[in-house]
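Q: Got a minute? One more chain.
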Amino acid sequence: MTRHELGDTGLSISRVGLGTWAMGGPGAMGWGAQDDDDSVAALHRAVERGVNWVDTAPVYGHGHSELVVGRALRELPEADRPLVFTKCGLVWNERGDEDTSLWPESIRRECEDSLRRLGVDHIDLYQIHDPDPSGPPVEESWATMLALVREGKARAVGVSNFDTELLARCAAVGPVGSLQPPLSLVNRSALADVIPWCAERGTGVIVYGPMQFGLLTGAFTEARAAALPEDDWRSRAAEFTEPKLSRNLALQDALRPVAARHEVGPAVVPVAWAAAQTGVTGVIVGARTPDQVDGWAPALDLDLGRDDLAELHAAVHRTGAGQGPVAEESTR
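A: Always. Here it is, folded:
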């Protein structure tokens, strides 16, 4: 299985990594009910298929996703355990209210809590989850992240959902190992600014949401959107309601000819598209069950050709789905 260097972090990662947001279960940022045994089995299947990194966060289920990942790690031989990426900066109180905090003492407390829940002695990639506009200067937060590397609590550090201004301010303090922005055929905005910024500076990029959280799996329908439970955040999201839903479903239909040409399921195509974008190192894809992992695992080594990419980009223009630029050609 091909590995790619994540910027200058020293981490070598598979093209696709397992996202564990849904493994946190229901809640304000949840995906609805989820069986922990299924989650553990999904992580194990991902490792079997060649995935060597897993991305999680404390806020996913208020610690529950990290606990599930920790359990899955313990049930694997040490040599088979994937790299563990987690985050800090989104915190919650006893009432379940969530807020952003990037104060140094909060970052350190979160780091210790994550190490405990995961059952590891270090975090392979520790990331700031979101900017904190009402908190300390980002330089102060980033200096704390870099200190965690020096102390051996993290091998590398990165950020998520930062714009180019914040990236530059962090880089002035010390190297930014990675960025995690959203990227899909529906949400292409990162191709306009932050991904090129990272490519020019040797910062690794791991993108999330390539299937637009289920919309581009090949199995989504209007009926399924209408049936989303209230504890699933997608039931309130604009891309899952009209008028955007119809455009997104039309784009989903355009995946099928490309998938058929490569003899893979439609869910593989948007993942492979994201991986093909210049500057992207790896793609985070979620799964609730082993079968879902099997559905997208061929993207680990599928290279889309220029004709494939041109067909997909034409479909974007034709359907009017999403926002952001579409490159005429995309290559790794």
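A: The two ends are 16 Å apart (CA to CA).
Q: Perfect, thanks.
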